[in-house]
């Protein structure tokens, strides 16, 4: 009975891995391309309605297995660089990012 449980668990894990791998999207990036970074793990935006995408960053190098090396164009001499998973990036096709701030004053009735 224990061996049957191990076998059943192995089959379940294989099926779940195949399901999740099927959902991954193949993305092709080239050095010099501008991208946006999804901040799911960094927790830089604690607000509920704020964007989770930050950027734009420039791709310095594309590494094997989907890893991408990014640099921040606002830094001097591109000193700050880091490596992220390519699944956390999307291509940036715009100009300046606009940050909107709205102030609403509430009046007593």
Which helices and strands, and how do they pair?
Elements: H1 2-23, E1 34-38, E2 53-62, E3 67-71, E4 81-85, E5 89-91
Antiparallel strand pairs: 1-2, 1-5, 2-3, 3-4
Structure keywords:
109 residues, alpha+beta, SH3 type barrels, 5 strands
Description of the structure:
- This protein is an alpha+beta fold.
- It is about 20% helix and about 25% strand.
- It is built from one helix and five strands.
- It has a five-stranded antiparallel beta sheet, with no helix packed on it.
- The protein is flat and about 70 Å long.
- The mean pLDDT is about 80.
Strand element count: 5
Write down the overall geometry.
flat
Radius of gyration: 21 Å
Classify the beta-strand content into a percent band.
25-35%
Q: How is the quaternary structure best described?
A: single chain
Can you count the helices?
Answer: 1
Low-confidence segments, given as residue ranges, are none
Q: Round the mean pLDDT to the nearest integer and report it.
A: 82
What does this entry show, briefly?
This protein has 109 residues and is of the alpha+beta class. The chain has a domain of 66 residues: SH3 type barrels.
């Amino acid at each position: 009975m224990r061996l049957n449980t191990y076998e059943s668990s192995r089959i379940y894990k294989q099926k779940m891995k195949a399901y999740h791998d099927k959902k991954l999207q193949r993305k092709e990036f080239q050095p010099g391309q501008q991208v946006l970074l999804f901040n799911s793990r960094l927790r830089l935006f604690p607000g509920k309605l704020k964007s989770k995408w930050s950027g734009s960053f420039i791709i310095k190098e594309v590494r094997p297995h989907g890893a991408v090396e990014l640099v921040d164009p606002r830094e001097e001499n591109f000193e700050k660089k880091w490596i992220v998973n390519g699944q956390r990036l999307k291509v940036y096709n715009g100009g300046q990012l606009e940050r909107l701030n709205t102030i609403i004053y509430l009046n007593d009735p």
